[in-house]
Structures are given as C-alpha cells and as structure tokens.
Specification:
Layout: H1 6-24, H2 30-44, E1 47-55, E2 61-67, H3 70-76, E3 80-81, H4 83-90, E4 94-96, E5 99-102, H5 104-107, E6 136-142, E7 150-159, H6 167-219, E8 224-229, E9 238-241, H7 243-249, H8 253-256, H9 261-264, H10 270-279, E10 282-288, E11 294-306, E12 310-320, H11 322-336, H12 346-354, H13 363-377, E13 487-496, H14 498-505, H15 507-523, E14 530-535, E15 538-546, H16 548-562, E16 566-568, E17 571-573, E18 576-584, H17 590-615
Antiparallel strand pairs: 1-2, 1-7, 2-3, 4-5, 5-6, 6-7, 8-9, 8-12, 10-11, 11-12, 13-15, 13-18, 14-15, 16-17
Helix pairs in contact: 1-2, 1-6, 2-6, 14-15
C-alpha cells in the first residue's frame, strides 16, 4: 500500500480503520466481538489471516477467534498457549511501537513451543521488505485506563501485496488493537452486567417466592404469629398479626396494632416478657383478651437482624397453652388436695405448716422446752383436769360434747342455742358474738400484722427454707387469755360416731358425710384459714392470728356446725366431733405440732366420755 502516494495511503488507511472500528460496536456478545475483531483485520487492514488470543482467568491465552482460513480456524480455535510462552514471544524480535515483529530468522526457535500456530507455504522472499511465510507480527491488547493489564494478543499473517507493513500500516494495526481492547472490555462488562442482571432477577424471584412462602406461613399458621418493632420509642409495638392470634385474643388486626405485648400481658408477667424480648427467647405468660379475661400462651421470639443496622424486629410465635396449663393446675391440685372432699391433703397441710416454722439458733435444745412450754401454758398432759383431761378452764372454754350452742348455718352469723329435749341431761349454751372473718385473702406466708412472713432471697415456699434473718418467727400466745398475744392455732378434729355410720350404712353414706363435714368446716372458718383432711375422719384447721380464747371459740363453733343431722339418701345421720388445740411455734417440727394437737384431741375425747358416764 505504501508504494502509492503518501496522502492517498493515509486517507485509505483511515477510511478502512474507521469502517472496521465502527463494526466493533455493533457486536452484542463477547464471542461476537472477538470474531468481529478477527474479521475486521482481514476485511479492512489488508491481512489474509488473523487470530485473536484471549487471556483466560488462569493467565494462559486461548485462541478465541480466527478469520481468513476455515481449515485453520477449525484446527486451532479453542487451543491454549501458556502465558510464559506468550511472554517469551512478546519479548523477542523488533519493536514497532506496541507491535512485535519476529522475522523468520529468529522465529525458527518458536516452532516447537505450545502456542497454537498455522503456517502457509510459499517461496522465500526475494526482496528485503518481502514477507516470509514464517514471519510473525503480534499486536498486544491492553485494558483501557492506562494500565498494562494484558487482555489478549492479535496475531496476523500474509499481508496483501506480500510486503511487510509500512509505518501507516503498522500505526493502523496498533490503533485497531487499542480499539479492539476497548470493545472487548465493553463486551466483557456487558456480559458481566447481563450475568449480574440474570442473577439478580433469579435472586429477586427467589426472594419473592420466599416472601410469599413466609406470608402464607405467617397468615395461615394454626397458631398465633406477630411481628413487633425493636428499639426506639415504639419498641414492642405490634406491626403485624395473623388471623390465629386475632381469634385467640378476640381482637381485630387493626385494633391489635394499637398495642404492644406489654400492654396485653398480665401485670404479674411483665418482667418475664421484658426478659424474653431482650433475649429473643421463650416464655409462658398470660395475655389479655378483649373480654378482659386472660389466656395462657407460650411466646417464642426470634430476633430478625439486619447485617448493617443490627436488630430490626421480633418475630413472635404465640401458642395457646390454656388447656395444658389447666391440666397442670388440675394435676397440681389433685396432688395437693383430697379427691373426695376437695380439701388440702396431708402433704399440702404439712407444706403450709412447714412454711411457718423454722429451726431457730439452738433449736435442737429449744424444741423440747418449746413443746413443754406450750403444754404448760394450755393445760397439757400434766396439770390438766381429772385423768389428764381438760376441764372448762384448762381448755379455754371448750366444753364437753353435747353442751354447746347450735350452728345456724351461716358464716359469720350469731349461733343460736341447740334445742334440747326434756330429760336429755344437756344444758344449752347462751348465744355468743359472731365469728368475724378475715377481710384479706389467705396467705400462708403472712404474719398477723399483714406483712409477708418470708422476704428476701432464698425463699422457697415449697420447701419452707428461708434465710433465718428474713424470717418472722411464729410464737405461741401466752398463757394469760387477756394478754392479747396471738399465734397460729392448729385445731385437730376427729369425728365421733363416724365408724358406726360407715359400718351400718356403707361407704357411700360415709363419703357423703365426710363431704358435708368438709363443707361445714370450710363455711365456719375465715377465707384465709386452712381446712385440710388428714386422712379417714380426721381434719386439721390452721387459723393464724388467734389468741387462746379465739381458738377455743372457733373449736366450739366448728363442732356445733358439725352436730346438726346430715341427710343422706332420705335418712338423717349425725356425727359429733372432738377438737384438740395445738400451737405452732418456731423450734418445733411439723410432726410435733400435729402430735401436740392430736393428743389434746384425745384428751378431750376421754374427758367427754367421763362426763357422759357421770351424767348417766
């Protein structure tokens, strides 16, 4: 080409370069761009063969496109040359700007390396600038941006006219290689963007599918689900709830969104809720329904976190455990209450009594003296009435069986005298003041002043173990009925005549009698007192805050409540009752307290028999 006039050569070269560079930008994919690069050299730059070698991720170069000879294209396309072999070639021969020309006189040593090669046959050159079939010309392609990152190498062969390219031909090839590098970089970028878009679309589809799966699992879950806000002024506010939770709480979704769980939780469970929210854990607590009732639920929280902003909200699973809690309470009640009468059983009685007792310092040496002091103060086994029995004064007002007033059947009302038949030998009692009930609910761990008897760390109501320095000691009242001292009275009750009823009329009648006696005892005590069935026909009453006279009056009232006939299956049966009063005091064991009351009960029973014999 350079044999013609210089201006013409320049103009023709620029036109060809413009045309082939323009075609580079029309390719859509990386493969199309590479093939366009190879075709543009053959079509517009005057070479019969062109090969594009592209750098792979591992650094080696692969033949990515070939133009000018279909046989050669099929033979070497896809073959790989080592990076070291290519670097060796790019360091040999003559440097034509960015181009590398290796004449046949030097290139023979490259015949056996691993770079894919194609040679055409031809005569040896006759002129100095004539092209030899084994001459090699390479145009390296570097990434745009001023760096020297090698993208690939264009290799050309057999320029038209048979001569080596002149200055303008070399400049055109170098400029074309630079534009090809830009086109290849753009094609790679487009390919990467397309792959990223495809990946993003797949991720979005997966996210939409996951969100839809979560929505359906959330909305149609058989148990309650809620999403609550975390942090900030609106911490704990409910953002979203499902239908199951709305049905459970009897509230609409829009109404629930005005609340947080702290607004709905039972006041006693607020601490549990706060700990659960902070830890993202699990708890059992009570939530308020619309009708102001509470339902037991199990909360399981999962903290949903953002990788950049930290915790964002709580996903809460709300399970209705009302039935399980009810069953647990029933089982606990059955374990601690008598199945026939519904009263606390022996184990529950001992637990409640044990919670009021402690072993004071030196209790081992004090215990015996404490029992003796109680016996001495209340006419115990020594110093009592005839044959060790209580008389009217020694028992604090408890009179022999059959000589007390009747019971009118209402709690807290006055007791009228029991009518007596002529010749019965029984003298009626005068009416007395009604028994005032407690106004506060029963608390087995409270002292008579209304303060909690056990406070501080280490308190275990089930075992009665408390730190001694936090314990309010239980002390028996003094011997003087008028000194105003009060204590925990233990009334041991044994039914008289029950065995004959059981033997004569059967166990069903006996059970009915026990049930009615339990009801009458419960009716005759305050709300805070304990009536327990010890076993058989034995009952125990725990009444706190009583003096000696109060306890004796209580025993009279309870016995007179039991005396009226009991109708069972159309017949009237009647039982009596013997009461023994004991006093709980720290330094005594539960068994000692019960044994003390039991022995006093038998003293009264023997005393009544003596009175009966004398009356007869």
């Amino acid at each position: 080409m350079e044999t013609e006039s210089e201006p013409y050569v320049r103009l023709a070269t620029l036109r060809q370069l413009h045309d082939v560079v323009g075609e580079l930008n029309t390719a859509r994919s990386l493969a199309d761009t590479l093939q366009t690069v190879a075709d543009g050299i053959v079509k517009g730059l005057g070479y019969e063969l062109a090969c594009v070698n592209l750098v792979q991720p591992d650094g080696d170069l692969v033949v990515a496109a070939f133009s000018g000879n279909t046989a050669a294209e099929a033979l070497i396309t896809g073959r790989v040359g080592a990076r070291a072999s290519w670097e060796r070639r790019l360091s040999m021969g003559e440097t034509w700007g960015e181009l590398r020309y290796i004449p046949h006189t030097e290139g023979w040593i490259l015949l056996e390396d691993d770079v894919p090669q194609w040679y055409t046959e031809g005569p040896d050159p006759r002129f100095e600038d004539e092209w030899h079939p084994q001459d090699r010309l390479y145009a390296p392609m570097y990434a745009p941006g001023g760096g020297r990152e090698l993208l690939g190498v264009i290799s050309v062969d057999r320029p038209r006219g048979g001569r080596r390219p002149g200055p303008w031909g070399r400049e055109a090839l170098q400029m074309y290689a630079s534009q090809a590098a830009i086109a290849i970089s753009n094609a790679r970028l487009r390919a990467n963007m397309q792959r990223a878009l495809v990946r993003l679309e797949r991720e979005q589809q997966a996210l939409r599918a996951s969100e839809e799966s979560f929505r359906q699992a959330f909305e149609y879950a058989p148990s309650g689900m809620a999403i609550a806000e975390m942090g900030g002024d609106q911490h704990g506010r409910l953002l979203r709830t499902n239908d199951a939770l709305c049905r459970l709480l009897g509230r609409s979704a829009s109404a629930i969104r005005r609340y947080s769980f702290s607004d709905l939780v039972h006041p006693e469970d607020i601490g549990t809720l706060l700990r659960t929210s902070a830890e993202g854990g699990r708890a059992e607590l009570r939530l308020a329904r619309r009708d102001s009732t509470y339902v037991w639920v199990s909360l399981r929280n999962s903290v949903v976190a953002d990788t950049t902003d930290g915790p964002r909200f709580l996903l809460t699973h709300v399970e209705d455990i009302e039935e399980r809690k009810r069953n647990e309470l029933q089982l606990a009640h059955r374990a601690s209450h008598d199945s026939l009468t519904g009263l606390p059983n022996s184990a529950e009685l001992r637990a409640r009594l044990s919670a009021r007792l402690c072993e004071r310092p030196g209790a081992i040496s004090v215990r015996e003296s404490a029992v003796q002091a109680v016996d001495k103060a209340f006419g115990g086994y020594e110093g009592g009435g005839p044959n060790g029995a209580y008389d009217e004064g020694g028992y604090g007002g408890v009179v022999p069986y059959g000589q007390g007033p009747g019971y009118n059947g209402t709690s807290g009302a006055a007791y009228a005298p029991v009518p007596t038949s002529p010749g019965s030998g029984y003298e009626p009692y005068e009416p007395y003041e009604p028994y005032e009930p407690y106004e506060r609910p029963y608390d087995p761990y409270a002292d008579p002043t209304g303060e909690r008897a056990f406070q501080g760390d280490g308190f275990d109501p089930s075992s009665g173990v408390v730190p001694l320095d936090h314990h309010v000691h239980t002390v028996a009242p003094g011997a003087d009925p008028d000194d105003g001292s009060k204590g925990l009275a233990v009334l041991f009750c044994d039914l008289d005549g029950f065995k004959s009823i059981n033997d004569r009329f059967g166990h069903n009648t006996g059970d009915a009698v026990l049930i009615e006696v339990a009801r009458r005892l419960n009716t005759g005590v305050r709300d805070g007192d304990t009536v327990a069935r010890l076993g058989g026909d034995e009952f125990v009453v725990l009444a706190d805050g009583l003096g000696a006279t109060d306890a004796a009056d209580l025993a009279v009232r309870l016995r007179n409540a039991i005396i009226p006939p009991i109708r069972v299956d159309g017949r009237a049966v009647r039982v009596g009752a013997s009461f023994g009063i004991g006093w709980a005091s720290c330094g005594m064991t539960v068994e000692e307290v019960l044994k003390s009351a039991d022995q006093r009960m038998y003293i009264e029973k023997r005393s009544r028999k003596t009175v009966h014999r004398r009356a007869g």
